[in-house]
Amino acid sequence: MKILVLGSGWMGSAAAYDVAGFGKEHTLGLADQNREQVEKTASTLNGNVEQHSIDCDDGNATAQLFKQYDIVISAAPYRFNAKLTTIAIDTETHFLDLGGNSDIVREQLEMHMRAKTKEVTIIPNCGLAPGLSNILAMTGFKQFKSVDSIQARVGGLPQEPRPPLKYQLIFSVEGLLNEYIERAEIIEDGKRCFVPSMTGLESVTFGDQYPEFEAFYTSGGLSLLPQILEGKVNNLSYKTIRYKGHCEKFKTLLDLGFAGSEPVMIGGGIHTTRELFAELLRKKLSAANRDVVLFRVDISGVKNGEHGVLRYEMIDRYDEETKMTAMMRTTAYPTTAIGLMIANEIITDRGVFLPEQIIDGEQLIDDLQKRGLQVSKSFISIEANMDKNLEQ
Question: Which of 22, 38, 52, 104 is most buried, by the most CB atoms less than 10 A from its CB?
Answer without folding.
Answer: 38
